[in-house]
Each structure stands twice: as C-alpha cells, then as structure tokens.
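Long-time lurker. I teach an intro course on protein structure, and each term I like to show students one example going from raw sequence to a predicted 3D structure in token notation. This year I'd like something fresh instead of my usual example. Would anyone be willing to generate the tokens for the chain below so I can use it in lecture? Attribution to the forum is fine with me.
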Amino acid sequence: MADSSTGKLTAGWQQDPRLTRVPVVVCTVSGTYSGITYRLSDQRLLDALNEGFTSKALRMGKDFVPLTDVQAYFPTGTKVHLASRYASTYIRKANVFFVGEPGPRQGGPAAPGGKPRVRRARTKKTIAAEIHMPPYILKGQIYAEVWQELIQALDSGERFLPLTNVTLWPELADGESHFDFVAVNKDQVVYLGESLA
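-- Reply from a regular --
Happy to contribute to a lecture. Here you go:
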C-alpha cells in the first residue's frame, strides 16, 4: 500500500500527457537557468508564457515559469550546483528578462493522432529591432500585423514580446548567443530601437 501511494505522489503535473516539453533558457537578473518548461500540445510557448496553462484540471504558469532538469549559472558564469537538487524550479515572471528557445524549431504543434496541427495563418510583417535590457542587447525581428507600426505592436496587453532570429550580446554563461525564438519581458526593456530599412 505504501508503494502505490508513493507512486501517486511522484506522478505530478509534469506527467500530464497533454503537455509538451520545451527546452528553454530563462535569463534573469540573478542568473541564467537552462531546463525544460511545459506548454499544452496545441499551444505556442509564447502563449504559455503569457497565459499559463492547465494541467490535471489546475491552472498553472500564470505568474511563474515552471522548469525541470535545471542547470543554473550565476551572472558571473559560475555554475550553481544547488539548482540540480530540486525536482522542479519556478521562476517568477516579473524577474525574467527573456525566455529563449534554442536550436531549430520544429513544425507546428502536433494534433491528436500525430499529425501536425495547422494554425490559421495571418499575414504579418517583420520589423527589425534592437532591444536593450542591461546587461543584454537582443537584435532580431518582431512580428506585427501588416497595418501596425512598431509602437502599436509594443502596446499589446501581453507581458512577453516575441522576437525571432535573435543575436544576443554578451553571450550567456553556457556560450549561447543565437536563438530562433525569444520571448522578451516588456517590463524589463529599457529601450528598443527600430532598425533603419
């Protein structure tokens, strides 16, 4: 009987089959955290960061970014060995500079049955931008509706701003300086410049 109750305790929200594991790098003022975060299988990472998600009938991820399999680094680049002791780590979104998704991104989220889910495509334009959030500078592309200028795209009600094809200065402690996708916390941005065409 003790074994079955222990099994129930260890099968937490991370085991929900509706969740997709997403490797990310979360950068904060106190350090950099590399690990796995979660989103619903029909949800983009950006949506999970802005809205949270539901697992096992519980709303989560609204104010904190959940991470597992964490490797942590101080701003100096020194590895934090204590972080690997935790089964899960939760980082307050208000303290996040940005969340980066390294490596090549796969196609759209999979629908039940293993077929890629096709999202309705809306025509958008890209705006080359440089974001300053000391000590980091991120250079990439912001997507906006075809009728929007940059200021209108920035004034959306969402906390995180999507940036693609990102180059980062200075590079992170693990040497990472390029991301396919980064979700930038607008509350941490000091200023943003639109590149000249």
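Some talking points for your students: Residues 2-10 form the longest helix (9 residues). DSSP finds three helices and 13 strands in the chain.
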